[in-house]
Structure formats: C-alpha cells, structure tokens
C-alpha cells in the first residue's frame, strides 16, 4: 500500500471518511494513483499527482484514465475537495485533453452543492471544450450513518426523477453535439426514482460499468439472452424444479424482480413460481446505502436466521459482497455465512448468465 499515491483531499463526501472505526486497515486507504486508475478503473482527482508521474502519462499515453471532476466552479470545488489547491486537478485535466489522453469523467452529484445550474455549467464545458473524454458519468452521493457532514443530503425519489428529466432535456437540447451522447446517469438514479432503466444500447461501450452505469441493463440483457437460450433447448420434463430464494439488497431487489418478470413472461407462468427474493437492509452502514456490494456479512447472517431453510432447495448469495481476499466489508469470510446452512446456501457470481441457469432449474 505504501507505493500507491495517496489522496490528500478532504472531500466532503469521501466514503472512506464515512466508515466506522476499527475495520481492516486496507479499507481506509485513500488512493489517488494514476496506475490504479489505468489498471483497475479507480477514479483519481489529478490534484495529488506529481509532475514526474504526470509527465509519464503524457509520454507513454497512459489511457484511459478515470477522473473525478464534480465541478468546474472554483468555489464549489473548494467545498467539495475541502481545500483551495484543487485547481491543479482542472489544469491537469485540460493538459491531458490537449494531449489527447482519453478520460472517463465522474461527477458525484450532491443535492444543493453541485446540482442545478452548476451541473448544467459543468456539462456544457465538457461537451464544448474537451475532445478526449470518452464518457461522463453522474452518480448520486453516497451517505452512511457515520457521515458527519451537515452539507450532504441523499437523493429523494422526486429529486432523482428531476435529475433524469434534466439529463434527458439537456441531451435533447444538445442533440447536434456529438459529445452530449457521452453523458450517462448511474443506475442508482433510476432505481431511486423507480423509473425504467434505459436499454442496453443507450450506454454505448459501457465505459463506466464498474461505476454502476449500465450495469443493470447489461445484467438483464445477459440474463434474458441466456434464459431464453437455455429454455428453448430444454424440454419441460427435464427441469430440476428447485425452490429458489435470492438474497439481495434494496437496489438489487428491483433488478432481480425484473429478471423474474422476464422469466415469467417467457414461460407464461406466475412470477412467484420462478423464485423468491429476500431483501437485506444495510444496518451496518445505514439506510441510505442500498447497493448489494456493500452489504455486510453480519446483516446477511441476521437475514438468513429469519428464513425457514426447509422452504427452499437453494438460497443464492451474490459473490460481490466479498473482496478479492474473500471478506465482506465487516471482515467476515465465506465460512461464517455458509455455516449452519444445511448445504442450501450457494455463493454465485453477480452474472446474468449464471442467474439465468439458476432460474431455469427453479420452475415449480
């Protein structure tokens, strides 16, 4: 970890600063490293990079890089980044674009801070003045129950719907600008607003799928294609007819439900006969955190204790709750979750094709 360039900003919405104390040390590492951005898709601010490293980017064409921008307004940036030296990030971004270094831009949207006119201004500057930007991703601010900032507010259903309308109107107004099509909202906005997700083709080359932009549409697209393929070649009498339960988050529930609907429509049977859903609320990080990957092992174990295991043949848990070392955000391992499961709990990759295979065996 010592070789990774660290972030020295004090961003108002920094998720690491919103974690509880006493967790494993790796969770508190704030990287702002261009190699991490290039290799793993991490977002960097370009405010902490050395002249030497910046020169390497230009010389060796290290691209694409994922850059957290948030705003062009100096005063708003001072609030967001928690310092007055963040202007370096803007200068570096401009220089990258002059040298045709491809970037994917992230805007963490905070109600009352960088939304409204400031968001419009940020987007206008990006589509009018930058030529090497591959995508612009807008994501809602994440707020845990440990957040100490009084400036941060979560998006409401109406607020998220308003952002969706604004982006649709903005892109429509700038339809003749080829860069406007590169602007995308994260899936969370549609889930918060309870709106239909855009079709998969809307997201182009899915440059920011790891940032939750187009991930749901891609998952459902994979699921639909795989499910129909499996069922078209499988006679009814060969179905395993297993009773299936999917463990997921509050946002994940909406995606799993849409997969169930796809299955039910294809087979012309009731949705309830495909699979059940058990929603885990995030008590560990708080009610505003609703993505599946940030579910704690302790919350999942508590949810499992309320389930009648005898009612199901297979209980599925998404693998995305674990880090590469096999630990949940609260440092529980797989064995901790699988024990006392009577062999009915299965951890599966967060993959539409794999879920389709599970559903194809679950018709009752």
Name of the CATH class of the largest domain:
Alpha Beta
Compressed to H and E, one letter per element, the order equals HEHEHHEHEHEHHEHEHEHEH
Q: Name the average pLDDT.
A: 94
Give the amount of beta strand, in percent.
Answer: 5-15%
Give me the CATH fold name of the largest domain: pyruvate-formate lyase- activating enzyme
Strand order of the largest sheet: 1-2-3-4-5
Structural category: alpha/beta
> Helical proportion?
25-40%
Which regions are unreliable across 5 or more consecutive residues at pLDDT < 50? none
Would you report the number of β strands? 9
Rg calculated over all Cα atoms: 22 Å
Q: How many domain units?
A: 2
Question: Largest beta sheet, briefly?
Answer: 5 strands, parallel
Shape: globular
N-to-C span: 50 Å
State the CATH superfamily name of the largest domain: pyruvate-formate lyase- activating enzyme
Second CATH tier, the architecture of the largest domain: Alpha-Beta Horseshoe
Number of helices: 12
Short description:
By secondary structure, the chain is of the alpha/beta class. The chain contains 12 helices and 9 strands.
What does this structure look like?
- With 364 residues, this protein is an alpha/beta fold.
- It has 2 domains: 16-213, pyruvate-formate lyase- activating enzyme (Alpha-Beta Horseshoe); 218-360, no CATH class.
- Helices cover 37% and strands 12% of the residues.
- The chain has 12 helices and 9 strands.
- Strands 1-2-3-4-5 form a 5-stranded parallel sheet. It has a 4-stranded parallel sheet with strand order 7-6-8-9.
- Strand 1, helix 2 and strand 2 form a beta-alpha-beta unit.
- It is globular.
- 36% of the residues are buried.
- The mean pLDDT is 94.
């Amino acid at each position: 970890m010592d070789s990774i360039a660290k972030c020295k900003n004090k961003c108002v919405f920094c998720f690491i600063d919103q974690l509880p104390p006493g967790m494993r040390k790796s969770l508190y590492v704030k990287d702002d490293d261009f190699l991490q951005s290039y290799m793993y898709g991490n977002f960097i601010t370009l405010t902490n990079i050395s002249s030497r490293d910046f020169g390497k980017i230009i010389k060796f064409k290290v691209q694409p890089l994922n850059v957290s921008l948030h705003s062009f307004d100096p005063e708003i940036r001072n609030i967001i980044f928690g310092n007055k030296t963040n202007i370096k990030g803007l200068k570096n971004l401009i220089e990258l674009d002059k040298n045709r270094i491809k970037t994917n831009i992230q805007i963490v949207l905070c109600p009352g801070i960088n939304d409204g006119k400031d968001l419009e201004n940020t987007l206008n500057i990006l589509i009018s003045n930058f030529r090497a930007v591959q995508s612009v991703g807008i994501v809602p601010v994440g707020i845990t129950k440990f957040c100490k900032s009084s400036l941060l507010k979560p998006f409401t259903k109406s607020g998220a719907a308003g952002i969706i309308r604004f982006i649709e109107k903005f892109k429509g107004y700038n339809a003749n600008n080829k860069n406007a099509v590169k602007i995308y909202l994260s899936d969370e906005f549609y889930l918060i607003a309870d709106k239909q997700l855009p079709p998969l083709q809307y997201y182009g080359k899915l440059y920011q799928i790891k940032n939750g932009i187009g991930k749901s549409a891609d998952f459902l697209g994979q699921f639909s294609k795989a499910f129909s393929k499996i069922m078209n070649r499988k006679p009814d009498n060969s179905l395993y007819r297993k009773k299936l339960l999917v463990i997921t988050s509050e946002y994940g529930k909406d995606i799993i439900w849409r997969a169930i609907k796809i299955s039910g429509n294809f087979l012309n049977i009731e949705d309830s006969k495909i699979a059940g859903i058990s929603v885990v609320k995030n008590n560990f990080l708080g009610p505003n955190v609703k993505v599946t990957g940030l579910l704690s092992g302790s919350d999942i174990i508590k949810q499992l204790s309320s389930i009648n295991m005898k009612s199901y043949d297979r209980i599925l848990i998404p693998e995305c709750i674990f880090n590469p070392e096999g630990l949940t955000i609260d440092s529980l391992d797989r064995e901790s979750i699988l024990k006392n499961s009577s062999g009915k709990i299965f951890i599966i990759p967060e993959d539409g094709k794999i879920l389709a295979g599970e559903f194809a065996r679950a018709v009752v």
